[in-house]
Amino acid sequence: MLRETLLACLTAMMFLAGCVQPDSMVEDESSNLNQIPFELTFSADTLDREEDGTPEFDLKQELENGPVMLLWIGAGCTGCHDWTDMIREKMEQGAFEDSNMTIVSVHRWGEFETKDDVEKVFGTANQSEHYTPWTIVTPSELTQAADFNTEKSTGASIYSAYGNPGTPTLQVIAPNGVLAWQSKTYWANETVFDDGFSFFERQVSQE
Questions:
Q1: Residues 27 and 53 in one domain
Q2: Got the DSSP string for 40-80?
Q3: Are residues 30 and 126 in the same domain?
Q4: Claim to verify: residue 51 and residue 74 sit in the same structural domain
Q5: What predicted TM-score, i.e. pTM, was given to this entire model?
Q6: What CA–CA distance (Å, rounded) separates 146 from 43?
Q7: Residue 52 and residue 84: Cα distance in Å, rounded?
Q8: Is the separation of the CB atoms in 200 and 67 below 8 Å?
Q9: How far apart are CA 13 and CA 7, in angstroms?
Q10: What range defines the domain where residue 130 resides?
Q11: Residues 35-75: tens digit of each pLDDT
Q12: If I label 35, which of 3, 74, 120, 157 is the partner at 20 to 30 A Cα–Cα?
């Protein structure tokens, strides 16, 4: 009986061996994450519409004008539709007129959704149900984040570098490339938006 029990344990260990991640692999992954700087930038294609300004978006260049609010989106994400519609209404009401903050939508699911999917849902005035009159960036899983200061690739994808954001996620990027504020509230919420939008104004008033 003891022999049969021992044999069963050894067999189980053999099957489990291939499923357990070696400590060295865990350490390597942690090491890569630790090497990602706080100050980041990236470049990626846009939908190349008039609203996008240029065929390629450069975050560092955009930050020269002030902080940037990133809205991570998916074409099939209803929360993203809700946030897009609310922010567009805010823009139409003049919320951005006296602010140096800009809004940029970043497509999160390039491996599952095409540019055409994004264009259909967000891209075209008077046709898209959730038209986006600001820049839409369309990176892929191969798009890498770069060190803000050296502009050298970090070796990390834009997704992992920015915390593997789900959709929708709002992030406010400071002019030095630091992720300063974040919200993962699924449905559009004016209080949450105002909190992110006024983040830097509150910091100044508290000093």
A1: no
A2: EE-EEEB---GGG-SSEEEHHHHHTTS-EEEEEE-TT-HHH
A3: no
A4: yes
A5: 0.83
A6: 9
A7: 15
A8: yes
A9: 10
A10: 40-206
A11: 899 999 999 999 999 999 999 999 999 999 999 999 999 99
A12: 74
